[in-house]
Each structure stands twice: as structure tokens, then as C-alpha cells.
Amino acid sequence: MKGVFSLAYKVIVIVGPTAVGKTALSLELAQMFDAEIISGDSMQVYRGLDIGTAKATEEERKLIPHHLIDIREIQQHFTVADFVCDAQRKIKEINDRNKLPLIVGGTGFYLQALLDGYHLGGNEVKGDGKIRAKYQKFALENGNNALWAYLNSIDELAAKQIPLNNVRRIIRAIEVYEMTGHKFSEQVDRPNEEIDALVIGLNTERNVLYKRIEQRVDQMMQDGLLDEARWLFYEGGAKFQAGKGIGYKELFPFIDGKGSLEDGVAEIKKNSRHYAKRQLTWFRNKMNVTWFDLVSNETDVVKIKKTVIEWLKERG
């Protein structure tokens, strides 16, 4: 692959739910097309959370350079804005090395933000400490449910996109509305003209996918997921963004002596299935994806390679 892109940085993106073969495909494509891999997963940024986030192994990372893995401590936040900034920088650095950036992950909102320039309004609006203090007090006195309900009453779309437990983001949405008179969810689509992406999606039949997800959870437990969750819990993980991830929060009740291990594992499997469904809905409705099924049809890998070759040729 040649060095400087004529109009925009070429980027290959592999998306899809867990357990459909994204990692294996990314390694194969990276070797074939002289690529470096950028994680598009919001949880793989955290050091110490390896099993539950299905990070590439040390051997795989020695084989192909990986980026945006292990760049945060578990106590730290990692936002969509952080991801976009870091990913854009890595894309440029990889291109400058005459390599092809290959983004792999399942966090649809992060990937869309990078590729489409999407933002949930108000990032340019400076904060107001008095407004924040007012609603922080409101949350303490009335609870997160009441705070979220108030946001829902003024901006239903923003409320749908912000989790109930993300008090900081809820207050920010209210703050922007009160300061500007415009809804936080009034989005601006500003396509990222510096990125030219081919988005490859992996999926398979739902019953097959769900079985693979459950098998993966069982394998994670055998590999030591409980010990990883226990370490996170005793480091205060229940308070952190890192502790909200599927595979960890479900085991906290057992670790805390308030639930059974069997129930925790069953909850991980259930939440993983639900998350996979949400991922697929996002990719289908929000992103322009070319879909393949490597689980049921291994020969699809030939089609994927051909698609990438043709796409690269078209762009010179």
C-alpha cells in the first residue's frame, strides 16, 4: 500500500456483535494488507480488564501492532470525544508509516462518531457551575430517576441516549438546554471528510450467535474472569465507568456475598445477548455496512478479501 492518501485516509472498519470472528478476521486482513489495528471498543482501553473485554492476546499484539488498548486506568473516564480524538491521531500516524489503519470493535456510537462526525450537541458550549451545582443537588435529594425524568421531559431523544446512571452526562444535557434554549440532542452531521472507510460487518443466525455468546462466557469463566472481576470490585470498580461493563457488574453481587455465582453467570449471558441485539440494530440503522457471515460460511473470507482489494483499487 502506498503512503499518502490523495483525498482522505483510507480506513477498514470491522464491526459486529461479540463472538462472530472479528478478531481472527482482523489479524488475517492486517497481515494481508500490511495494516495496524485500532480497537473500537470502549472497554478495552482499561488496563487489567483483559478477559471480560476479549482483548487481543499478547501474542496477537506482537504479531500485529494494536492501538487504543490499555490506555486508561480503571479509575479514569473514557468518552466518545476521547475516542474520536485518539483514533484520528492513530489513523494519521499509521498512514504516515505507510500502513493501513484497521479499526475493530463493537461500540457503534464511538465508531459512528469517528466516521460521520456525529456529535450529541453542545460540546462547544462552555459549562455553568451554578447550573451544574443546582442539578447535582437535585439528584442527591431526589435520585437519579427524577433527574433523568426531568431530562426526558425536555429532551426525550437525549434521555434515550444517555444511561440512567450517567449523572454527569444528564446534567450536561440539561445545562446545555438551559444555557442555549436548544435541545442537547439537536445533532449536527458533519461527515469526517478526512476518513474514507469501508465498513465490513460480521453476523450470523441469531440462535447460532446466542449459543456462541454463551460458550464464550463459559470460556471466560474458565480463563479467570471471576478473579478479574474480584480485583476490579475491591479496587472500587462498582463506582467507576470501567465497572459498568458486561462481564463484571453481574459478578459483583456474588463477590459481595449478596448473590450466587450461577445467577451472575446467567446474567452475563443474558446481558451479552441483549447487547448483541442492540449492537446489530445500531449498525444496521446508523452505519453503511457490507455484511458477511464467517460462522456459517467460511468462504465469506474470500469475498471479504476481494471486497477490500477492489475497494483499495478504486481509491488508488
CATH class of the largest domain: Alpha Beta
What integer value in Å does the Rg equal?
21 Å
Largest sheet: 6 strands, parallel
Distance between the termini: 9 Å
Q: With helices defined by DSSP (H or I, 4 residues minimum), what is the helix count? A: 13
The structural domain count equals 2
Write down how many β-strands occur, each being a DSSP E stretch of 2 or more residues. 6
Give the helices and strands as they follow along the chain.
Answer: EHEHEHEHHHHHEHHHHEH
Write out the strand line-up for the largest beta sheet, numbering strands in chain order: 3-2-4-1-5-6
Share in helix: 40-55%
Brief rundown of the structure:
By secondary structure, the protein is an alpha/beta fold. It has two domains: 9-119 and 189-314, 3-Layer(aba) Sandwich (Rossmann fold), CATH 3.40.50.300; 129-180, Orthogonal Bundle (Histone, subunit A), CATH 1.10.20. It has 13 helices and six strands.
Structural description of this entry:
InterPro entries: Dimethylallyltransferase, IPT, P-loop_NTPase. Belongs to the IPP transferase family. The record marks 107, 132 as: Interaction with substrate tRNA. The protein is of the alpha/beta class. The protein has helices at 22-33, 58-63, 80-96, 108-116, 129-142, 144-154, 156-161, 167-180, 206-223, 225-234, 252-255, 261-286, 300-314, and strands at residues 9-15, 35-39, 66-67, 100-104, 195-202, 290-292. It folds into two domains: 9-119 and 189-314, P-loop containing nucleotide triphosphate hydrolases (Rossmann fold), CATH 3.40.50.300; 129-180, Histone, subunit A (Orthogonal Bundle), CATH 1.10.20. It is 51% helix and 9% strand. A six-stranded parallel β-sheet has the order 3-2-4-1-5-6, sandwiched between helices. Helix 3 (80-96) crosses helix 4 (108-116) and helix 6 (144-154) runs parallel beside helix 8. The chain is globular, with a radius of gyration of 21 Å.
